[in-house]
Amino acid sequence: MLHLFPLLAQIEAEATLQEKSFLSLVLDADPIVKFTLLVLMFFSIVSWAIIFYKYRQVKQAQGDSQSFWNAFSQSKSLQDVVNQKGVRSGPLYEIYQVAMQVAPLLKKRGKTGQLERDSIVQRLAQTREEEIYKLEQYTPFLATTASAAPFIGLFGTVWGILTAFWAIGKAGSSSLATVGPYISEALIATAIGLAAAIPAVIAYNHFVHRIKIVIKMMDLFSDDLVSKIEEEIAS
């Protein structure tokens, strides 16, 4: 009968551990583990804020660019583009605006030479880089979260395991009641680290792909725009 007491004690300890809620485990965690969890929560909250913001921004930029390019393709001249019912915003529209500012100056000089053409291309390339910066803004934080969060969670895990070994040495017992809470803290740190990293890496890859599409549209549109400027000035 005596050999049943350790088994009953272990069962009771497991039941007590199961009754502890997730919140209580976090509140009772080691200060280092708590700080690790706060850092991971910061990364997660900021990442989700960026995800929602960039999703709307990139989606609108791609839609506006496609709509403006359609209006540009249906126009007989550069001036007719503004008469088309379409979008008056987006990366392609900004490039068009810059081109319309430069084109009248070139018309006064007659036909465009290589120097004038290079000037147009340079101005459009500068606008292109500004639009790319707007699209890529804040996305590096998602990449940082995706790469750093698992290691921060791993740090919390290692610290929780070290604390568990310290508790074993102090109590002189390796029972579940002694090491269970510390192991739980360690696993929570790992889980939150992955919970912060996984959405960040998925969103980052998604935005990079969508931004590349918009960049390709800007490149093709810039070439068409320069060609149309040369045609109108030459005519």
Write the layout of secondary structure elements.
Layout: H1 4-19, H2 22-27, H3 31-74, H4 91-107, H5 114-136, H6 139-171, H7 176-234
Helix pairs in contact: 1-7, 3-6, 3-7, 4-5, 4-7, 5-7, 6-7
Question: How is this structure best described in words?
Answer:
- With 235 residues, this protein is mainly alpha-helical.
- It has one domain (24-234).
- It is built from seven helices and no strands.
- The chain has helices spanning 4-19, 22-27, 31-74, 91-107, 114-136, 139-171, 176-234.
- The longest helix is centred in the C-terminal third of the chain and has 59 residues, at 176-234.
- The chain is rod-shaped.
- 28% of the residues are buried.
